[in-house]
Amino acid sequence: MEGFSPGFTGRPRAQSQGLPPGQYVTESFPVLSAGATPRPSPTDWELTVRTETGTVSRWSWSEFLELPAEHVTCDIHCVTSWSKLGTSWRGVSVDTLLDGTDTSAGFVMARSYGGYTTNLPLGDLLGGKAWVATEFDGRPLEPEHGGPARLLVPHLYFWKSAKWLTGLDLLVSDSQGFWERNGYHRRGDPLLEQRYS
Amino acid sequence: MSWMPTLVVGARRETSEARTLELAITGWPGHVAGQHVDVRLTAEDGYTAVRSYSIASSAGSRRLEITVDRLDDGEVSPHLVDTLEPGHRIEIRGPAGGWFVWRPTESVPQRPLQLIAGGSGIVPLMSMIRTHAEASSATPFRLLYSVRTPELALFRDELVRLERDDAHLDVTWAFTRVSPAGFPTPPARLDRTSSVAAVFAPELGAVTYVCGASPFVESVTGWLVDAGHLADDIRTERYGG
Questions:
Q1: Looking at domain A45-192, what is its CATH homologous superfamily?
Q2: Contact at 8 Å (CB) between B89 and A4?
Q3: Residue-range domains of chain B with CATH
Q4: Where are the domains of chain A?
Q5: Predicted model pTM
Q6: What residues in chain B have their Cβ under 8 A from chain A's Cβ atoms?
Q7: pLDDT at B107
Q8: Is the ipTM of this complex over 0.90?
Q9: Are the C-beta atoms of residues B65 and B55 closer than 8 Å to each other?
Q10: Tens digit of pLDDT for each residue in B155-201?
Q11: Alpha helix stretches (DSSP H) within B15-100
């Protein structure tokens, strides 16, 4: 690519050390969403886990807040190329939500208030890799960032971390969610730069 | 989707802050109005930086033009707006995006389209407006364009001309800091009342596209939903933190 972009110098190189390919560091917290921001009220809010056989586990907002929560510090990577380092969250591990669930599913469709969906391999949500987060930086999660509760799967591009989460449907076979139907990658691993399908 | 060597074949200044780059790519597949491309710049030492930019040109033209607004603390946009010249090469990946798009053929007949832009959020909507005009589409289009001053408005002359010539396009300008001479109202930020008044009534069932800085998009979509517009019929694209 020698000769490309004459005169382009770019930012100090240290900022991009250790980032997934094609990412840059931002200090702000950009908002990306495909439509209007849903605002479910705490009295209506619920989270369900539905297995492939139709068994449903259900938590109201007050029940959800009683589950054991963890502090998580992680880097997040948006497919639009920004990364935000050392972000601080509090949430319930997906392991906790699925504890004791009898399933042979290999995939999950995350469902959100407002109709958003995203699909993930179940293996990407288990083993201490994913949470349902209700706090960012020590404060309740803002609606435009997915509050009251969003999925947090920091090792995948951030569109997989569904905002306004209300359901996790366990599936035997994979199916495409919203952005996956609209040209984005099925799995979305930033280290492999799986942006587009 | 892989990186494609791209030749800058034209550059024209739109405002003091923005420039349109005309790009040529061998085998460019064409795009759908509203889509974006990723731009990759490479420094001498191999360092690369990637950003996404909306396509401004119409789908029917098969030309690839991006209009870029300079972010003062930006890494890529100042280079695209101030430094890059025709004859230079960059790399492009795309076109991308299958949601914030409009095709003349997919419109439900007579179901109107409401476009709402804040600042440089006009760019993907301009691709839709140009595509609409070139296709002589009868889909009713209405644009609400919020911009600080007349000098910073992108595509102002073209929008005035298109509105005059196209019976199916209606443009409402919202100047927030300075209005042009003779403009009927003093400059004002859009608020709940002025936004709701400027768009198609909810019962007309328009599909609405909103593009701009995140706080702008957040405010306007909230007002529209409160006024009875269906959230399912509102598509958004946001930039900035």
A1: Oxidoreductase, molybdopterin-binding domain (3.90.420.10)
A2: yes
A3: 4-96 (2.40.30.10), 104-239 (3.40.50.80)
A4: 45-192
A5: 0.93
A6: 1, 38, 40-52, 75, 79, 83-84, 88-91, 93, 96-100, 214, 218, 221-222, 224-225, 231-232, 234-236, 238-241
A7: 58
A8: no
A9: yes
A10: 999 999 999 999 999 999 999 999 999 999 999 999 999 999 999 99
A11: 77-78
